């Protein structure tokens, strides 16, 4: 398993706050995420999945955690628009935004092609009905070696 702290520097590199209880009520985090999370400048692994954030928006400041390689916000009951600041997460290898109780609205995914390191993307359960469909599939094709799970049926061939 991953360690939460680098042995050499003592810096926090992993924060796993995934709720381990399957009933979705016991042990959940809720409410707003505090921006003090930004003090963890060396964070590469952030898991807030399986919590109940009660429909609050995904905080824009998550896009400031530029060293993130793994971000899991699945089944965490976030709502609203997926922040454009996610485009700053160019080191991200894995992004899971799936299965919200309150479906987030992805009306603008122009940030997606900037995630040049992305290997895994899960958008299952994300409302893509308002996304600009003429560029979304093409943008995803520019991401090499991407395993994408999302409600789009047809993808164009890679360029």
Summarize the structure in words:
By secondary structure, the chain is mainly beta. The chain has a single domain, classed as Leucine-rich repeat, LRR (right-handed beta-alpha superhelix) (Alpha-Beta Horseshoe), CATH 3.80.10.10. Helices cover 4% and strands 14% of the residues. The protein contains 1 helix and 8 strands. The strands form 2 sheets. The protein has a 6-stranded parallel sheet with strand order 1-2-3-5-7-8, with no helix packed on it. It has a two-stranded parallel sheet with strand order 4-6. Helix 1 links the parallel strand 7 and strand 8. The longest helix is centred in the last third of the chain and has 6 residues. InterPro entries: Leu-rich_rpt, LRR_dom_sf, RLP23-like. Keywords: Glycoprotein, Membrane, Receptor, Signal, Transmembrane, Transmembrane helix. It is found in: Membrane. It is a single-pass type I membrane protein.
Q: What fraction strand?
A: 5-15%
User: N- to C-terminal separation?
Assistant: 37 Å
Strand order in space, largest sheet: 1-2-3-5-7-8
Architecture per CATH nomenclature, i.e. the level-2 architecture: Alpha-Beta Horseshoe
Q: Please provide the ordered H/E string of secondary-structure elements.
A: EEEEEEEHE
Radius of gyration: 16 Å
Protein name: Scab resistance protein
Main location: membrane
Membrane topology: Single-pass type I membrane protein
Keywords: Glycoprotein, Membrane, Receptor, Signal, Transmembrane, Transmembrane helix
């Amino acid at each position: 398993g991953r360690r939460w702290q680098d042995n050499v520097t003592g810096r926090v590199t992993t924060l796993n706050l995934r709720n381990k209880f399957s009933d979705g009520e016991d042990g959940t985090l809720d409410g707003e995420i505090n921006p003090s999370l930004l003090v963890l400048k060396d964070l590469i692994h952030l898991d807030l999945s399986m919590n109940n954030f009660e429909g609050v928006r995904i905080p824009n400041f998550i896009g400031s955690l530029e060293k993130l390689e793994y971000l899991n916000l699945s089944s965490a009951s976030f709502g609203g628009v997926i922040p454009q600041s996610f485009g700053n997460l160019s080191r991200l290898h894995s992004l899971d935004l799936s299965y919200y109780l309150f479906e987030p609205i992805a009306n603008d995914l122009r940030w997606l092609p900037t995630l040049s390191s992305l290997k895994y993307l899960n958008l299952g359960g994300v409302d893509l009905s308002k996304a600009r469909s003429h560029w979304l599939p093409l943008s995803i094709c520019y991401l090499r070696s991407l395993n994408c799970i999302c409600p789009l049926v047809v993808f164009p061939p890679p360029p």
